[in-house]
Structure prediction request, 233 residues.
Amino acid sequence: MARVSAQASVKSESGGASLLSIGQVLARLNPEFPDLTPSKLRFLEERQLISPARTESGYRKFSPADLTRLRFVLTMQRDHYVPLKVIRGYLDELDAGRQPVLPGGSTQAPSMLSGERKYTRDELIREAGATVMLMGDAITASLIVPADVFGDEALSVLRALVELQRSGIEPRHLRGFRGAAERELGLIESALIPVARRKDASSRAKAAELAKEIAGQLEIVRGSLIRSALSKL
Prediction:
């Protein structure tokens, strides 16, 4: 499989940089993607999403371009719940020199060149334009998990809560969202039982990917139901 070269956000200026071992790749990406493991890397290679070089002894070696491509795949999965087959189709089109539309309708890929920003509680409140009380209410309603530092997802949620509050919707009105999320988790866990019974590393990696794909499909159905209900107002 060819390397991505047609779009700056999914390529890397590798120059003459040395290749990386699996251990070095994990060391660089685990701060952003803690669930990334050697078995998951092999799984993504099996699905032809990455294609590292091999030494004469058969060891995998990753270029900076491989690393950037891998970061793109993992981000599209984690942040946008895009199925692997859809990501692969997008990358195949990109490799062929075309400018495909990203899942979600954009031709501009998110930048993969820097990690997720981290925020202290005060920084998160300031960046979101929220109040200390709103932040506290969001944590009480289990909409944001309490922590010492927060990521971009927490920022997106808090910004949404700021906008909802302007329409009179408070975090306490959204307590049911946590219960709904837990029910969806139960559906996903039930669907994964056949795969989860197998204890080998490859099966665990497949289960993790399948869980994300199912979550993405549930998101589509939920969004459709809401849009359908809104059309009747």
In short: The chain has three domains: 11-95, 121-169, 175-230. The chain has a mean pLDDT of 80.
